[in-house]
Amino acid sequence: MSTKHPGGEGPAEPPSRELPKFDLGVYATDRDDGPPDPNGFGINGFASRLPIPLILTVIATVAIGLLILFGGSSNGDTVAVPVTLVTTTTVAPTTTVAPTTTAVTTTTVAPTTTTLPPTTTTSQPLIEPSGNPVEVADLVLGAFGIGELSLGNPAPAVLGSLAASLGQPDSTEGPFESAGESGTCAGDQITLYRWGPLAVVTRVISDGSEIFYGYRLEGRGSDPEAAAMAMTTLSGLRIGDTVGRARSLYSAVFTVEVLEHPTEGPIYEIREDGVLLWGPATSTRDDGIIEGIFALDPCGGSLSG
Across the chain, how many H-helices and E-strands are there? Predict the structure, then answer.
């Protein structure tokens, strides 16, 4: 670099000085740079225009954020950031069910009127025994009665004698209006007294009294061990004998007929100017079995008065 001596032409120029690049003064620039930007848009100009409090506030905010994010205590512990958990509970809607009303139906039942049939007594009435007891073998079955108990006799005496010999009857039926039962006439007021297989029929007559009206010894469905099952006719016929035996016992004096009855089936009849004794059998042949011994049917006879 040249200088002019003091004695030369014009004043001496000040020596040029090159500023180092690290000089951040207002005029710091390369020597080839022009003068500073008069608008001040450089970084130095922009920074020079910001208020200092604002700058300090930004720096403090950034520092606090970095401290929270990366900072820690001096001993290396991690600072936990509290987290608040929000629990949401969903409550199901409440449904109100209306109460159920049940209608009660009241049914009024009309009273029942029952018409009772004629009086039938199945329990044995008390019959006062009378006379001396008679052995069953002596209670023979005849055309007109049982032993010395004749048809047409007063019923209380006959029943009393039978009660003395056979005990109280097992059952009674009646009095009731007959429909033709046991050989009686329809319309008769009768009562049936039963001692096992033996049925004794009494009838109320016109004067209001009661008489011995008939009997039947019925083997069908009866207890074979019953006392009355041992009763026989005067000639010795009994239930369980054959039709052929009946013929042999009566044919010499009486007529024995065997026929089909319209309602009873096979029957036998012992006759002499009418039926004396009769009853059901299992067959009309001689090997048929006698199943009953009946007195003559009282309806239409002298006992119908």
Answer: 4, 11
Output the six-digit token pair for 210: 């009661």
- Whether 188 and 178 have beta carbons less than 8 Å apart is answered as yes
Give pTM, 2 decimals: 0.58
Strand partners of residue 277 = 270, 295
The residues that bridge with 290 in the sheet, in sequence order, are 281
Q: How far apart are CA 304 and CA 147, in angstroms?
A: 22
What are 104's two structure tokens? Answer: 């009660």
What are the domain boundaries of the chain? Answer: 19-66, 136-304
Secondary structure class of 181 (helix, strand, coil): helix
Cβ-in-10-Å burial (0-12, 13-18, 19+) of 32 comes to: exposed
Residues contacting 129, CB < 8 A, separation 6+: 160, 161, 163, 164
pLDDT per position in the chain (305 positions), as tens? 444 444 445 555 555 555 444 444 444 444 444 555 555 444 455 555 556 666 677 677 766 766 565 554 444 444 444 544 444 455 555 555 555 555 555 555 555 555 555 555 445 568 999 999 999 989 999 999 999 999 999 999 999 999 999 999 999 999 999 998 888 889 999 999 999 999 999 999 999 999 999 999 999 888 989 999 999 999 999 999 999 999 999 999 999 999 998 888 999 999 998 889 999 999 999 999 999 999 988 775 544 44
